[in-house]
Amino acid sequence: MVPSPPSSAVRTPCRAGRSGRAFTLFELIVVLSITAILASVVAPKYASAVARYRLDSAARRIAADIEQAKALARTSGTTQTVAFTPSTGTYSIVGYITGASRTSDYSVRLGQPPYSVTLQSASFGGMPDLRLGPFALPADGGSIVVRSGTETRTIAIDASSGAVTIQ
After folding, report:
1. What is the pLDDT of residues 68-106, one digit of tens each?
2. What is the CATH number of domain 25-166?
3. How is 130-147 classified by DSSP, letter by letter?
4. How far apart are the C-alpha atoms of 106 and 51, rounded to whole Å?
5. Picking from 37-46, 54-63, 94-103, which range would have the lowest pLDDT averaged per residue?
6. Where are the domains of the chain?
7. How far apart are CA 65 and CA 62, in angstroms?
């Protein structure tokens, strides 16, 4: 007869592919606590980065649309107007028709996605409209201010050269 092994030497069979070691509740709580701390630090920075990205995108869009209006003035030899309406957060290139409807001016709503920014002000010689003459020079220099959270961007238009800069 074969002697039986001592009880301490008896092995229990492992399930397929598992080592038998699991995380303790304490280890799980520590990992979740570290994850929560990191998330609380990263979330505000992420939100701030998204707001800055939206603000920069809106400022570049406004600058590009002003350049488009300048090109239209130059090619058509007529005055073009970019009308800004801070109360509604919109602007439009008057007389520039695009899209399928062909019934309304080209306009952009800055308060809606993808931008979701506030058109704080637009001033060109005391008026909210930028008028570009037949040679693409503005009647008056001025600026447009857009805001997202605590950040702002100013799009400036030089009166003598018509240069558009984002500050």
Report:
1. 999 999 999 999 999 999 999 999 999 888 876 667 889
2. 3.55.40.10
3. EEE-TTS-BSS-EEEEEE
4. 25
5. 94-103
6. 25-166
7. 5
